[in-house]
Endonuclease/exonuclease/phosphatase domain-containing protein (Paralvinella palmiformis), 192 residues
Amino acid sequence: MTQNDSSYSHILIGGDFNYHEIDWTTWTTSKLADHHSQTFLDICRDVYLFQQVSEPTQVRHGQKEKLLDLILTSDDQMVHGIEHLLGLGISYHLCPLMGIYVYTPTVMDKKPKQRYHKGKYKEMTVHLAAQNWAEPNECIGILIIFMNIFEDAIDWFIPTSKPPKERRKKLWVNREALAMQKKKHTAWKQYK
């Protein structure tokens, strides 16, 4: 994963990372700058990940509680209501339970739609009245003929809309970015 990877709009990574030397409240490590925990912190900062777990996840009797199990997200509002449940089996790790806000892209329906409010219903009525409805004697045959004639009448007398043009929204434009942009413009107006 790189800083410029735009193939994902939202990222959630969770698991047992075993970085007990990292203090997640200050985003610092007790190890030297070349230690793998510092490298991990640097990567998290570089790709703008948020660490969501604030309580210790490993609890052993007689030992210091440790925060080892992490939930990293690309959006600080993506995860909510984290609870810690007892570990599975004989594990000393607590199991995080959380709610996730799932974001789905807006799908544009590119098919044209009937605009019934603009239909030519008088002409349609005349067309349907001119049809020979007495041919088949069985119900299914009449229904099939009616459906075919009616679908043709809809195609002829009900206009369709043009499919909407697809607008590509830039991935970085989210609610937070728009709020910051508005704040910047307000500050600029005050400065002038």
Observations:
- The chain has two domains: 12-100, 108-168.
- The longest strand covers residues 79-85.
- Residues 108-168 form one domain.
- The beta strands are 12-16, 22-23, 28-29, 50-51, 69-73, 79-85, 95-100.
